Amino acid sequence: MLDFRSADVHSPSDLVRLKWVQNLPEIAVRAGTINTNNILLPLIDGLTDDDTHVCVALAAQIAEIVPYFDPQDVVGLFGPLEKLLCMDSYEIRDQSVQSISRILLSLPEDEVERNGVPLLNRLAKHIYWAPRASAATLLSIFYRRIRDRSGICKLFTTLSTDSSALVRKAIAQSAHNFAASLDLSTLQTTFSPAFKSLLEDESEPVQLAAVENFAEVARQFNVISGGVPEYFHILFKKWMSEKSMRLRYAIVGQFTAICTHVKVTTDDIQIMELFSKFLVAPRMSDEGLQTRINAINQLPKLSNLLLPETRWQLLLPMLNAQKSDRSIQFRVALTVATIELIEQCDEEEISLTGLRELFIHLLKDEAAEVRLQAISGFQAYNKKLDYEIFCKDILPLMFDMTTDNEWRVRVAIVEYIPDIGRQLGELFFSNELIDLLFIWLCDPVHSMRVATVNVIGELCGMFGTDWSDTTIVGRLVTLMGHCNYLHRIVGLLTVQAIIEFISTDKLSQVLLPKVLELCQDKVPNVRIVVCNTLAKLILVYSPATSAVRAAVTKWIEESDPEVKGYVARVLDMTRGAE
Predict the structure, then answer these.
(1) Cβ of 134: how many Cβ atoms within 10 Å?
(2) Listed residue (8, 22, 15, 14) closest to 59, CA to CA
(3) Does position 56 have pLDDT exceeding 50, yes or no?
(4) Chain centre to alpha carbon of residue 473
(5) Is residue 428's pLDDT more than 80?
(6) What angle do CA 373, 374, 376 make, to 5 degrees?
(7) Sign of the dihedral through C-alpha 398, 403, 406, 408
(8) Does 577 have pLDDT greater than 60?
(9) pLDDT confidence of residue 2
(10) CA–CA dist 314, 273 (Å, integer)
(11) Pairs from 425-434 (Cβ < 8 Å, separation ≥ 24)
(12) Tens of pLDDT along 543-576?
């Protein structure tokens, strides 16, 4: 069996070779430990120069077949993995690092020192950059698995000043993992100077990789040594005036974590002065936009660091200064941040801090995207406020938005209605909003009408039969008699949505006669919807079957072929219901 499958390794089709690699665990089980080491291992080794997707799969599967090797033979897998760790492709090297890390964790320490450390040294001293980059990523796992760690520390220092920027970038990317493994002395004498050089590296990608780990490394320093080196403070303040947008973006994304772990200052005013530098709009409208969006997204987290007595005096002026920003994308992010801040407040804070005014301003924004985002925050806003404030703040805006030029805004308002129902109850709907619902049912946009039908169905299920009978049925009968055929159709669709929540009296005496009346409608589309409505009505209210059959029998000579098919289906249902 193994010999047969080995032919797949030499297949000209990369899909066949990939399939063979993916089945390696199954092949290893059938081969047995002797064949796995003597026959299968050379086949694996022969695939290490294959196409990228085959090599990535091979690197992943090598770790999966470790249980099928004798313990003393597992190190034989280091051979193909070493070749994969020398590849240019990051995907291959990354997967190989993951696999060899799993193998190292499964081996005894003496086995790691005897066979693993020589492998690491070969990689770290290789003439080509790729194996050295792999070695940089593996340092932390080797440091945890051996007793004599001095050699690992020397390699860290050497690789952090490597001539290749790609190697230095690899060491910077894995610096936080290495720092987490160190004792106090090694952290201060070996790691700290090397990490400083990476933070100041002349290559921007290297510096960025180090900066992205800045907050996490600072946390490790606090855990191990109780504080961070002085250069953390110096560099952080220097970066505040950095012109590189990529570096500013990396810093602002960690700003709250940096303030927590680096403790640049404990003064709230100074923290906000530093932070405000990231919100300054550059001359070009698109330059640094993502940095500013990243900054505004940090505000809710940053607010938790500020003292309660000074928080809103510092935050609100900054928020209000941004509400008229020319970028729609930025104002959307500002709206998200405002909603998150509202969720952190109680009712009194929302009123006193000016968040109410800011939120209402965003609801009136000229951009539909901003208004839509603000509407999504209705629930968070209303949970904090009582009925009177809702009627004062939100209800007038909702009336205005029913005629918004952007149909997506109108749909968003409609879809929010059930939440209002759950918060305020059926009396509020009977008095305030029910007329709005029927205005929305006649909206010129199909999506708006469908959304309203669904909402009315949900409200009827929420408030029950009595509310549905008294509030909805009468208006529906009027709508089904409208001169516009679209209004008659949406009335029928609403009947289908609420039919389960209507009393039998209203069904038999009001809705059924009106639906049957529309059997003679001049518009074929209306008659098709009538058929669907009658079909559902029969399922819910079986006593209607005879009346429906009588009406449909008169209708059997329907001239429109499509409508005729629907009529036949309803007639079949009436016969089956007997």
Answers:
(1) 27
(2) 22
(3) yes
(4) 42
(5) no
(6) 65
(7) positive
(8) no
(9) 45
(10) 9
(11) 426/462, 426/463, 426/467, 428/387, 429/459, 429/463, 429/467, 429/471, 430/467, 430/471, 432/391, 432/395, 434/471, 434/472, 434/475
(12) 767 777 777 776 656 566 677 677 777 766 666 5
Gyration radius of the chain over CA positions? 35
Residue 121 structure tokens: 């040294």
Tokens coding 119: 């492998």
Amino acid at 386: D
**Which tokens go with 55?**
């090599």
Position of tokens 């320490």? Answer: 109
- Whether residue 341 contacts residue 297, with contact meaning beta carbons closer than 8 Å, is answered with no
Alpha-carbon distance of 233 to 217, in angstroms, equals 13
Residue 288's alpha-carbon distances to 43, 180, 275, 318, 328, in angstroms, are 52, 33, 15, 18, 14
Nearest to 70 by CA among 45, 114, 24, 35: 35
Task: Using a pLDDT cut of 70, give the percent of the chain over it.
Answer: 88
Is-contact 341 355, C-beta < 8 A? yes
Handedness of CA 18, 20, 23, 29 (dihedral sign): negative
Is there a contact between 61 and 47 (Cβ–Cβ < 8 Å)? no
Dihedral angle, C-alpha 87, 89, 93, 96, nearest 10 ° = -90
Give pLDDT tens digits for 301-334. 888 877 777 778 888 888 888 888 888 999 999 9
Mean confidence (pLDDT) of the chain: 83
Rounded Cα distance, 263 and 80, in Å: 47
How far apart CA 45 and CA 83 sit, in angstroms, is 9
CB–CB of 196/168 below 8 Å? no
pTM of the predicted structure, to 2 decimals: 0.71
Interval 216-264: pLDDT, tens: 999 999 888 888 888 888 888 888 777 778 888 888 888 888 888 887 6
Token duo for residue 347: 């009712």
Q: Phi-psi bin for 208: left (phi > 0), alpha (psi -120 to 50), beta?
A: alpha
- Quote the CA–CA distance of 313 and 480 in Å, as a whole number: 56
The two tokens of residue 484 are 């516009």
Compute how many other C-beta atoms are within 10 angstroms of the C-beta atom of residue 419: 13
**Residue 475 CA: distances (Å) to CA of 415, 458, 482, 536:** 20, 17, 11, 20
CB 496 within 8 A of CB 536: yes
Tokens of 195: 């990490």
For residue 198, pLDDT beyond 90:
yes
What is the C-alpha separation between 162 and 165, in angstroms, rounded? 7
List Cα–Cα distances, 78 to 62, 90, 184, 187, 568, in angstroms: 10, 18, 32, 30, 73
Distance in angstroms (rounded) separating the CA atoms of residues 58 and 38? 18
Distance of CA 217 to the CA centre of its chain: 26
**Residue from 546, 538, 438 nearest 496 by CA:** 538
